[in-house]
């Protein structure tokens, strides 16, 4: 049955190894249905293989969208607009998503918006909570670390960024050596619950005064520890200790940057809210650590539930709605942008 108050948006995400689609009702801030296909074929390679990702998206996206539209009980006429991730990400996957979305947009006669994957991560907490602009966003994924002020749905000011390995990449590479399947972040979190965070001496990453991030030194230190201990001889207890220590060091590194941000910032200039987002924000331990850190500055930290942190179609659909609300004209006249910074 058609309900005129609903504002339904479709989101399509294919920037990395997850093929994801979703339908949301932006009025109710509810997810009508979301579907995701996680490509497992990369696991034996220990990282995403672009060619396999491209093939996987072309194979699964049509069926996934079909399943979504059939199972969501939504009249296609009710869909108000479509969002598709146009970058940053792997060119092949982005191309599949964008070409497919343009076809759907023509077939259904619905407006289309090109979505920046990083902006979508930073905005999705507004789908999950009542969160007003401006706010601070700490975005950590498999390929990015960003310290951003989100002024509006279209204005992002980059305060700091990753200089080398991202936090997720560090977890994935260490996890690979521990024999965990890719991506390893979630498995590291589980193992860490049984470990002692102070047992393996690891360096706190990049303790300088900037707001930039660097996790490659931490990754190397963890890999060196594995080499010294002997990869094959590692007991589960030792692995758990390393995971707990790695998580702790990542948390400490992020906390240091938060402290840098607030240092010399008068109370009246403190942001009202902050968000922790991107795949790494699915980590409950890091979420707790950062919540405590922000509470010292009387700033509330919002972290979306895990399924909104890792790549998903909801964040792309929500970002299309945000653009629509902000009066940004839809367009077919765009191409993919494998490199596309979040803002200035
Ligand atoms: O945002 P995302 O899904 O994809 C990218 O845009 O990269 O982030 C993926 C990253 C991977 O590195 C993965 O290991 C990490 O997020 N991740 C986690 C957890 N779940 C996923 N890291 C820590 N703890 C988790 N529970
Ligand atoms: Zn992502």
UniProtKB/TrEMBL annotation:
GO cellular component: cytoplasm
Any one GO molecular function term: iron ion binding
Name listed for the protein in its UniProt record: tRNA N6-adenosine threonylcarbamoyltransferase
Lineage: superkingdom: Bacteria
Positions that bind substrate: 139-143, 172, 185, 189, 283
Residues holding Fe cation: 117, 121, 311
Gene3D superfamilies membership: 3.30.420.40
NCBIfam families: gcp_kae1, T6A_TsaD_YgjD
Organism: Holospora obtusa F1
UniProt cofactor note: Binds 1 Fe(2+) ion per subunit.
Record-annotated Gcp-like domain positions: 31-318
Catalytic reaction list: L-threonylcarbamoyladenylate + adenosine(37) in tRNA = N(6)-L-threonylcarbamoyladenosine(37) in tRNA + AMP + H(+)
Family statement: Belongs to the KAE1 / TsaD family.
Location(s), subcellular: Cytoplasm
EC annotation from Swiss-Prot or TrEMBL: 2.3.1.234
GO biological process: tRNA threonylcarbamoyladenosine modification
The keyword tRNA processing belongs to this UniProt entry's keyword annotation: yes
Sorted UniProt keywords: Acyltransferase, Cytoplasm, Iron, Metal-binding, Transferase, tRNA processing
Protein purpose: Required for the formation of a threonylcarbamoyl group on adenosine at position 37 (t(6)A37) in tRNAs that read codons beginning with adenine. Is involved in the transfer of the threonylcarbamoyl moiety of threonylcarbamoyl-AMP (TC-AMP) to the N6 group of A37, together with TsaE and TsaB. TsaD likely plays a direct catalytic role in this reaction.
Cofactor list: Fe(2+)
């Amino acid at each position: 049955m058609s309900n005129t108050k609903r504002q339904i948006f479709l989101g399509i995400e294919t920037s990395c190894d997850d093929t994801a689609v979703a339908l949301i009702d932006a009025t109710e801030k509810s997810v009508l249905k979301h579907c995701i296909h996680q490509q497992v074929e990369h696991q034996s390679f220990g990282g995403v293989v672009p060619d396999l990702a491209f093939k996987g998206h072309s194979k699964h996206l049509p069926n996934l969208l079909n399943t979504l539209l059939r199972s969501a009980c939504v009249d296609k006429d009710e869909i108000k607009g479509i969002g598709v991730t146009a970058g940053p990400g792997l060119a092949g996957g982005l191309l599949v998503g964008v070409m497919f979305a343009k076809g759907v947009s023509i077939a259904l006669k619905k407006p289309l918006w090109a979505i920046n994957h990083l902006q979508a991560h930073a905005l999705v907490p507004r789908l999950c909570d009542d969160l007003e602009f401006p706010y601070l966003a700490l975005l950590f994924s498999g390929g990015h670390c960003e310290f951003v002020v989100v002024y509006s749905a279209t204005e992002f000011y980059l305060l700091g960024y990753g200089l080398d390995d991202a936090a997720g990449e560090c977890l994935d590479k260490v996890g690979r050596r521990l024999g965990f399947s890719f991506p390893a972040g979630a498995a590291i979190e589980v193992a860490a619950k049984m470990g002692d965070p102070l047992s393996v001496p690891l360096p706190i990453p990049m303790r300088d005064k900037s707001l930039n991030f660097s996790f490659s030194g931490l990754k190397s230190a963890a890999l060196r520890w594995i080499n010294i201990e002997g990869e094959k001889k590692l007991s589960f207890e030792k692995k758990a200790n390393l995971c707990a220590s790695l998580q702790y060091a990542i948390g400490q590194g992020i906390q240091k940057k938060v402290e840098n941000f607030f240092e010399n910032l008068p109370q009246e200039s403190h942001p009202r809210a902050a968000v922790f987002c991107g795949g790494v924000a699915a980590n409950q331990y890091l979420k707790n650590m950062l919540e405590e850190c922000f509470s010292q500055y009387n700033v509330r930290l919002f972290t979306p539930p895990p399924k909104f942190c890792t790549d998903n179609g909801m964040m792309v659909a929500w970002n299309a709605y945000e653009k629509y609300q902000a009066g940004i004209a839809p367009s077919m006249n765009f191409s993919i942008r494998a490199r596309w910074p979040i803002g200035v």
